[in-house]
Specification:
By secondary structure, the chain is an all-alpha fold. The chain is 56% helix and 2% strand. The protein has helices at 2-13, 30-37, 45-59, 65-79, 90-104, 109-115, 126-132, 136-149, 151-157, 173-182, 193-196, 200-212, 222-230, 234-248, 270-276, 279-282, 286-293, 305-318, 343-360; strands at residues 165-166, 171-172, 331-332, 341-342. The strands form two sheets. Strands 1-2 form a two-stranded antiparallel ribbon. Strands 3-4 form a two-stranded antiparallel sheet.
Length: 363
């Protein structure tokens, strides 16, 4: 019997994802699944396990082997299971960011550096604290102190802390704030939602939500991993851009962004402009196209006339179903990134970790 269960577990791990609603094999209790999925030798194993099960339960997401391994893979990739990971050269990175912001604000670099010599609330100068910073939380505390105490801080950072991804799952603060506005945060907030993302329980809760708490009929988890990096539904939207490019003969960046940032109805972005070339063919007005594209970050986009007509035409032109998901073509840029990386690279790395976790956690 035990051998049969093991075989079924292996077979189940080979079945591609068919959407968030597909029930997965649950060979053991959630805590056993989580314990088997965590890295060996992990410090505070019980604490990680408790926060993971709490996050899954609070979100109402099944902590089955596939879901747990997906989350574990992201944690490993993002932080190596460190709540506040050390970042080599963080002080230098911070100075580069400060100098860049000073230049954009037309402030003399010497003036900014002089002000940062002032003593902060800790008794040490802001400059000294920046030089000594080793983690994002330490640097975030410096920025918050500087913004609150020095008018120049508000000029440089516009009252917005530049440390925008936090915690062991490197969750974006904007996502956490938006998600908590839709669904109440289940834990007591000591300071703010932004600060909660630095905690293990907060980062895991919002990270699980970002990765799994949205319906997506992807055939592989690979695309959820890409979405985690590029934004929910980025992989679906990249496939939509590919279909539009094929139908119009245009070259489009398949980055998953269907509307230009700060888009103006009179100045559509590249994707919208390409779609408008199909307006007469699909009997859709420019305003109807814009309305449908505004659903691009939701599951509802797949129900729009634009989405259905584009893929119906793409399927007919190809003689077979066109891909409904593709890895977004995005190069990653960040002060912390020193190599040429991309969303595709990220998704594949996480997918490799996911596969190893499935193999190791076949409880």
């Amino acid at each position: 019997m035990l051998a049969a269960v093991a075989v079924l577990g292996v077979l189940a791990s080979c079945v591609p994802e068919r959407g968030a609603e597909t029930p997965a094999v649950r060979p053991a209790e959630p805590r056993s699944v989580i314990d088997a999925s965590l890295p060996r030798g992990l410090s505070d194993r019980a604490g990680w396990s408790a926060d993971l099960i709490s996050g899954f339960n609070a979100l109402g997401i099944d902590p089955n082997r596939e879901n747990v391994c997906a989350v574990v893979a992201v944690i490993e990739q993002e932080s190596g299971f460190h709540v506040d990971p050390l970042i080599p050269g963080l002080g230098e990175i911070a100075w580069h960011e400060i100098d860049a912001r000073a230049q954009r604000a037309l402030l003399p670099k010497a003036l900014v550096h002089s002000v940062l010599q002032l003593k902060s609330v800790t008794g040490r100068s802001y400059s000294d604290r920046i030089d000594r910073a080793r983690t994002e939380r330490e640097l975030s505390d410096i920025y918050e102190d500087f913004i609150a105490a020095v008018p120049l801080g508000r000029t440089l950072f516009a009252d917005a802390n530049p440390i925008r991804t936090r915690g062991p799952m490197q969750v974006n603060v904007a996502f956490a704030q938006s998600f908590s506005a839709r669904k109440p945060y289940p834990y007591a907030v000591k300071t703010s939602i932004a600060d909660e993302v630095f905690t293990r329980r907060g980062s895991l809760y919002f990270g699980i939500a970002h990765l799994l708490d949205y319906p997506a009929a992807y055939e592989r988890r690979l695309y959820r991993f890409a979405d985690y990096n590029a934004g929910q539904y980025a992989s679906r939207n990249a496939a939509f851009q590919s279909a539009v490019a094929g139908l119009t003969g245009t070259t489009l960046a398949q980055d998953g962004a269907l509307l230009a940032h700060d888009s103006d109805p009179f100045k559509p972005g590249d994707t919208e402009a390409a779609v408008r070339m199909l307006a007469k063919r699909f009997n859709l007005s420019d305003s109807a196209i814009r309305s449908d594209l505004e659903q691009a970050k939701t599951a509802e986009f797949e129900k729009t006339a634009l989405y259905r007509k584009v893929f119906a035409a793409a399927d007919a032109a190809a003689g077979h179903p066109a891909p409904r998901a593709m890895l977004p073509q995005i190069e990653l840029h960040s002060p912390k990134i020193t190599r040429k990386l991309s969303t595709a690279w990220y998704a594949k790395r996480v997918d490799e970790r996911y596969g190893r976790c499935l193999g190791a956690s076949g409880v």
